[in-house]
């Protein structure tokens, strides 16, 4: 299994799961284009990984903006002449019941989590079809399958991605594979943000959560990176239109 010389874009590649993927794909010999809206972190990561001998470039991108996504695809082709894989991983989180959201929050979450993947596929699929193949990996969430209390918007956005994976896979089969990574609880800045407002320190909350996960630990970004690297590789060539759940067994528990 190898990503050697493959040109891979990672959106949200400067933090959490995406940063873990950037580091792991680069370590596997991929030419990684890191795309996010974190300019400072992106420049720092590019400098660090290039100094270590990896072919990594940061491209500032707002994934919710079609022109920014189109520019990312153009820049990647200028740099490397092709796009072998894209990990659509950028995402935002918001808590609340439907009675509590205003339209601005709804629009932001749906634009960053869902519309971004439409734009990415719209501008990447023609490139991949023309060059003879490519893979799109999309980070969804177990939130697509269970009703997390007070997470209606986030859950709906991730469920939309699960549907989109199937549709893209069917529409573009033959040249483009589309698959999902579906994480459970992964130790990232986003997870830490979800702990704000609880009546316990984050480390105690994490310990409580870890006790309820069958493998007895939180997931780490590298757990997702290992799976995404496999799904992006040629060895995963028969995996299409589905998602790989990475939750330490949580979804396998009985619901009582
Ligand atoms: N951490 C978890 O437990 C968990 C579980 C399931 C799914 N996920 C999903 O994994 C993905 C990564 O989450 P994370 O936990 O690493 O969070 P994170 O907050 O550490 O990283 C999110 C990344 O998305 C980028 N981003 C946000 N809005 C953007 C925009 N408009 N344009 C470009 N980039 C943008 C951020 O800059 C950042 O790099 C998200 O899609 C999230 O929904 C996370």
Give the full name of the CATH homologous superfamily of the largest domain.
NAD(P)-binding Rossmann-like Domain
Which structural class is indicated by helix and strand composition?
Answer: alpha/beta
Please identify, by name, the CATH architecture of the largest domain: 3-Layer(aba) Sandwich
Number of helices: 8
Average of pLDDT: 97
Classify the helix fraction into a percent range.
Answer: 40-55%
Strand order of the largest sheet: 3-2-1-4-5-6-7
- Euclidean distance between termini CA atoms: 39 Å
Unreliable segments of 5+ consecutive residues: none
> How many discrete domains?
2
Considering the chains and any ligands shown, give keywords for the structure:
256 residues; alpha/beta; 2 domains; 7-stranded parallel sheet; 8 helices; 7 strands
Helix/strand layout:
Layout: E1 7-11, H1 16-27, E2 31-36, H2 39-51, E3 56-60, H3 66-80, E4 85-88, H4 103-131, E5 134-139, H5 152-171, E6 176-183, H6 189-194, H7 202-212, H8 221-232, E7 243-246
Parallel strand pairs: 1-2, 1-4, 2-3, 4-5, 5-6, 6-7
Helix pairs in contact: 1-8, 3-4, 4-5
């Amino acid at each position: 299994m190898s990503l050697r010389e493959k040109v891979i874009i990672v959106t949200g590649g400067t933090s959490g799961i995406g940063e873990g993927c950037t580091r792991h794909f680069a370590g596997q010999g991929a030419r990684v284009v890191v795309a996010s809206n974190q300019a400072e972190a992106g420049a720092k990561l590019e400098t660090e990984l290039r100094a270590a001998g990896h072919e990594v470039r940061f491209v500032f991108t707002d994934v919710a903006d079609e022109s920014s996504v189109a520019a990312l695809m153009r820049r990647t082709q200028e740099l490397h002449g092709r796009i072998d894989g894209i990990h659509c991983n950028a995402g935002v989180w918001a808590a609340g019941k439907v009675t509590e959201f205003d339209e601005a929050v709804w629009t932001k979450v749906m634009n960053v989590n869902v519309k971004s993947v439409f734009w990415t596929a719209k501008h990447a699929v023609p490139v991949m079809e023309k060059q003879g193949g490519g893979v799109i990996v999309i980070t969804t969430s177990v939130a697509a399958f269970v009703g997390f209390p007070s997470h209606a918007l986030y859950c709906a956005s991730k469920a939309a991605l699960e549907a989109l994976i199937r549709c893209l896979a069917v529409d573009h089969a033959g040249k483009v594979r589309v698959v999902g990574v579906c994480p459970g609880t992964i130790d990232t800045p986003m997870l830490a943000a979800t702990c704000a407002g609880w009546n316990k320190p984050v480390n105690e909350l994490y310990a409580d959560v870890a006790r309820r996960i069958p493998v007895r630990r939180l997931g780490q970004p590298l757990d997702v990176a290992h799976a995404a690297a496999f799904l992006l590789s040629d060895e995963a060539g028969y995996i299409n239109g589905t998602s790989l759940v990475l939750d330490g067994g949580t979804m396998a528990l009985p619901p009582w």
